[in-house]
Amino acid sequence: MSSGRGPIEQRPIEQRRIERLRALHGIVHRGVSVGIGDDGAVLDGGAFANGVVASVDAQFEGVHFRSSWVGRGATYRAIGFRAAVAALSDLAAMGATPRAILSSVALPVGVDDTVLEALAAGIEDAARMHGAPVVGGNLSRASELSMTTTVLGESCARPLLRRGAKVGDAVWVTGPLGARALGCRALDAGLGLDDQARAFVEAFLGPVPRFDVGRTAGARAHAGIDVSDGLVADLGHVCDAGGVAARIERDAVPRWPGHEALAARLGRDPWLDALAGGDDYELLLVGPVDDAWLASVGTRVGEIVPGQGVTIVAEGRELRLGATGFDHFG
User: Fold this and answer.
1) Can you name the residues that pair with 97 across neighbouring β-strands?
2) What is the average pLDDT across 137-146?
3) Residue-range definition of the domain harbouring residue 106
4) Number of independent structural domains in the chain
5) Which of 26, 56, 233, 243 could form a disulfide with 150 if both were Cys (CB 3.0 to 4.6 A apart)?
6) Are residues 146 and 180 in the same domain?
């Protein structure tokens, strides 16, 4: 984990923090020859026998999380956990096996060690849960709290890619959608400790990357993606990559029990977060209509058709969606 060369007066604090992180993350792991403590980590080549899959994800205060949530349904440990899982989900979406994590944390002046250690503990929770040790990263000062997570995974024999959807394919999702987006909105509304919202908040803070499905999906599905920006937006990426269009049957999209009631309490259209909320981290798979394995791991929500874009259909009518999904620059 690199310390960089900040102002001289910051180095003792920085070094102390790095030592604490090294104590937390620096356990010897199989496949890791050199971990935290040098300018870079050294991983055994055998850990990537089928090739390396790499991805990076960033989480920023005010965009992906808010410190004001802490004590009102969230903890910094949960925020750290969620940051790591958001990156790991990209590996699951390609059918990769997670092998290592590099974590960069930027802290504003005045943020104390307890916050850093809670964030790091959450990242370590995700690392241990998914067998991907934290082998390095960076610690720096910044104007806002942020975490950038780089993940390395071993590719499977046939990675699941966005391109490859074919006209006539079915569209499947591996679980209910919209619950985590509602959990985020409940935290923003100060309902993080409310009994009606609690399960949704916990789902938002504790997402599960679908490695269980991803490792097999490449051999069965024609294309796929994880649902991080919302069903419509992410299906749109698959359509763009394959030069096709898609139709979604709105009423086929699975939702959690209690979704409609919480949406109403938050003043939300009950379908908007299921279709465009994001943060689901379920997998969207496109493949043959008659594939029994796809039917066993997912719910069929639509089909691939000629053309461009994604159309939503309900009760025989095409619907317009007010927002197509999370857009960092929208």
Assistant:
1) 154
2) 93
3) 8-154
4) 2
5) 56
6) no
